[in-house]
Inverse folding.
């Protein structure tokens, strides 16, 4: 367990704190927790590269921590009726599809490229911006309907990204069987 992996574990351990703060409508503290999680994400990546401490565990834990933070945020806000259920279903479905695809590839010994694409990274960025915006608006008691265009944009990008990863995986599997 090196420093980058420890920071990633800290980020995972912050998730229940973050969810609890959201549930108790402590939105400013939830935003601060999300900010701290973002700092640990940046630091673990920098340290891993600079100190040459990249590990296979880190390659799995880091994106998992990001997915858990975003997914639990959307689920929690959806339960609180601050995010439409359809959007949360879309986010969760995409992430489950990615994890299921990686698991199938692993168990069938199919070589697939699980590296994030530009569209995948962009989707994560848009999802994070949406999450932060919703929490910020809720903390200031602003009209969440103002964010509807952002929700639709995020939904569209999430859907495109999911279809892109699905297509990429399908092409890889079918080309390896030829």
């Amino acid at each position: 367990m090196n420093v980058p992996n420890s920071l990633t574990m800290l980020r995972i351990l912050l998730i229940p704190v973050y969810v609890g703060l959201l549930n108790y409508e402590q939105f400013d503290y939830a935003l601060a927790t999300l900010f701290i999680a973002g700092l640990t994400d940046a630091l673990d990546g920098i340290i891993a590269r600079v100190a040459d401490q990249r590990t296979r565990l880190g390659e799995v834990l880091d994106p998992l921590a990001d997915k858990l933070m975003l997914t639990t945020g959307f689920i929690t806000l959806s339960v609180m009726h601050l995010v439409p259920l359809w959007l949360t279903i879309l986010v969760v479905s995409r992430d489950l599809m990615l994890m299921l695809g990686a698991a199938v590839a692993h168990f069938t010994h199919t070589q697939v490229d699980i590296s994030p694409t530009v569209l995948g990274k962009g989707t994560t960025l848009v999802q994070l911006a949406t999450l932060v915006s919703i929490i910020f608006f809720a903390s200031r008691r602003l009209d969440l309907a103002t964010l509807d265009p952002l929700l639709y944009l995020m939904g569209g990008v999430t859907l495109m990204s999911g279809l892109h990863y699905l297509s990429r995986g399908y092409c890889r599997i079918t080309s390896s069987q030829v």
